[in-house]
Amino acid sequence: MGRFVWTLLAGFAIGTPAVPVGLSLSLPGPVALLAVLLGSAGCVVFAVFAMEHARLRWQSWRAPRKSSAVRAASAAGTPIGGAAADDTVADDTVAVEPPAGDRLSGTAGRRARRVFDRYGVVGFGIVGPALFGTWGSSLLGAALGIPRRRLIRWLLAGVTLWCTVMLIASDAAFDAFGIG
């Protein structure tokens, strides 16, 4: 029972890579997979709800300040993005860049946005745990504003897929090296 709990906690803490922890604790493969999946499910649900709560609090805190900034910018005659009206590209389209303080302007945020734009919620849920880890994909998905139920459902499908792949690879490696 203690080995199952340690594997479950490892699944919560590190997600998919916890499968070898369960195998190294001499748990059978299906039991280790179950423990890691339960821990990862707890991680996904906790991270999505926590990030959604934080995002909503941030938006409610930011709304009054943002509306006052919009009023001040319109009074000064400056567009909201801060660019002047003559900042145009050669084909007469206005150059639009994300604001400097954009919450997804970092490398991982841009990659998450690219995956989400290209493959949608399903692709993000399946590929996200492999690219960003369980915690990272949960937090990034909630920050992108993906609906909570769809995000959790597809992240759990992705975590299940990658945990199964990790179980097969770890079991093969343990057999090849005579461990366990």
Report on the architecture of this protein.
About 12% of the residues have low confidence. Helix 1 packs parallel to helix 3, helix 3 crosses helix 4 and helix 3 crosses helix 5. The longest helix has 48 residues. The radius of gyration is 22 Å and the shape is elongated. The chain is built from 5 helices and no strands. With 180 residues, the chain is mostly helical.
* Cα-based radius of gyration, to the nearest Å: 22 Å
| Contiguous runs where pLDDT drops below 50 for at least 5 residues | 81-101
Outline the biggest β-sheet: none
Which structural class matches the secondary elements?
A: mainly alpha
Overall mean pLDDT? 82
Question: Which helices and strands, and how do they pair?
Answer:
Layout lengths: L1 H13 L4 H6 L4 H48 L30 H37 L4 H30 L3
Short overview:
74% of the residues lie in helices and 0% in strands. It is mainly α.
From the structure above, extract its key features.
5 helices, elongated, single chain, 180 residues, mainly alpha, 0% strand
